[in-house]
Structures
1.
Amino acid sequence: MTMKNRNKGQIRVLETILASFIIMVALTFVNIFATTPSSPKYEATELQKVAYNVLHDLDEQGLLPRFVYKGEWENLRAALRVTLPSDVYFNMTVYDLHNTRLDDATIFYGDSQMFSMSKNIASIAYGLVGSATKIGAAYQAIYEPRIVILQLTRG
Amino acid sequence: MGHKKGQFVIIAVLMIAIMIISIGAVMNRAVTYYKHEPWEEYLTLIGSVELGSRRLVELSLANYTNAITPDSNILKANLQKWQINLTRVYAGYGISINYTVANRLYNVYGTSINYVLGLNYTWQKPSSFSAANATFALDVNSIGLKGYKFTSAAFLNLRILNVTADTNEITVAVKKEDQVPVTALGKDNFQVEGLDILKVTSRYDQQYLVVYKIKCAGVLTPPVTVKLWDTRGIQVTAKYP
């Protein structure tokens, strides 16, 4: 009788261990497939959002049209460096509607290899409609769209 | 019989494990679906198109008010071009935009504006203005957005409040859309007909929030005509009295 009860106890312990093991396996299995909000899967999307926000803010302040239409590429580069986080590399190109490149290829920050090697590169296009240029006291306002392409990746 | 109790425990635990995995799978799908849809990116894209359209309305008004012979069709012509070019700029999103220009009498900011093809200016008065207005409907097919409506308006009002002949000073108030006072204007933004400007200073005013004092070189003899260009290049000319 005592022997039988002792065996029963051992079986219970084994059952508990087995049950715990099954639950642990289930939790581990779920955890493998769980995609947390900070997953690298979303890096490109996050960077796209950052890129749009940066250009929108610069445009809202009237800086982006000024830099682009006056060809102030160094100022544009400096503005992007100040606005973007330091670990974000950028490469910007400016085109007209005939796909002619207008910038001098200096609106760049970071390691150029990152843009060819990184898996998470965000690339967005942003449109500018034109600018009003001061001539004497008056202004000359011309519709002259520009396409700004901004590529971002994390260093 | 006692031995069979253990099997029930195993079955119960297996069921719990299956439940955990099922709930985990559903949760995972829910979280990833939400995150997969880049809502904020779409919002910023729509915001960019909105801002671009507003800039176009401002640009057209600047063109209209600065031209020697104003082209009343300039806003419509620019909008037509923007409508075509927008699909090229934001290629891949399936963006298309439709517009209607304001074409009747509106009462905006307490001012009656009679728009013709989305444009109007009333100058040579103590309170003069330049205005433009267009309404857009945006479709972004890639996200299933249809007919997102927004209005872009540009407005600049110059009001000559006072002319002090003794000190050769003109006091003016400048307001833009939503009656927001225009700040940071300087000597380069103003022109007084027939006189040079010595300096332009601004100060707080209880009624207009910001008023500018234009100090002229020479004697002010009414009527006084003041021209203003804001940073967007929009012009307005006011005359006092």
Note: Chain B touches chain A through 53 residues (CB under 8 Å).
2.
Amino acid sequence: MTKGSQTLSATFAALADPTRLAILARLSRGPATVKELSAPFAMSGPAVSKHLRVLERTGLITRGREAQWRPCRLRAGPLKEVAEWAETYRRFWDASFQRLDGYLETLKTKERTHGREK
Amino acid sequence: MAEKNRVGVTTFLTPSDREIVSIRVVNAPRRLVWDAWTKSEHLQQWVLGPDGWTMPVCTVDLRPGGAWHYGYRHRDGQEMHMRGVFQHIEPPERLVRTESWGCDWPETLNTLVLTEEAGLTTMTCTVLFATKEARDKALGVGMREGWSKSYDRLDRALADRL
């Protein structure tokens, strides 16, 4: 297994948690401290720090060395891989499903006009 | 979770690092949706992805072990093929088949489940990659296509998952 694919597996595991996704969404708008990241959650600072360690290990975020604040920043690399993969798949099916909505209407109209085929 | 799904909205989930699940509710009875997924004359009208593609080839041998093949052509001349083999067929509820998008795309096991309630049909499509390596190969395709817009998409992708 390549180093890249190991990263990817870890990335998926890290993304499987709603709290971590919310943290990443917040960081996509700019760096933040642990205190700022904890604010939206009914969760202690240490509990949030645990999630941050998972994200840091995966390389999804980096943390500054500045004293106790240690601001967290998003690292785009691993997320780009996931986003692109999901995006290709998503684009294809989203467009197809949209077309299906219209097509099913056509089929329903046809049935009403010609009666249901046995 | 079910009440979150509305007509016209696709929900994408990644329940594990080998799966992608997409859920979509359509305003039609299940038997009609089943036909739309299993008859070539219907498939050619909608399984077309982004604008610009048509599906001149569509063969569907709907039986366990039977092959299926969607052959696509883009208006710029590019071609693409999706193929696989049916594993399990249980009309009008459950369709299990393998799927491959050509040499750079790994084979996946795709399960479609249709449930009907009050005239609406919920389509739940689960794509299962056989191995992590296979899934990672799929990611390789995306990487070669270039990532320039990925960062913009990231916000949206995350927002949709929350």
Note: The first strand of chain B starts at residue 10 and ends at 13.
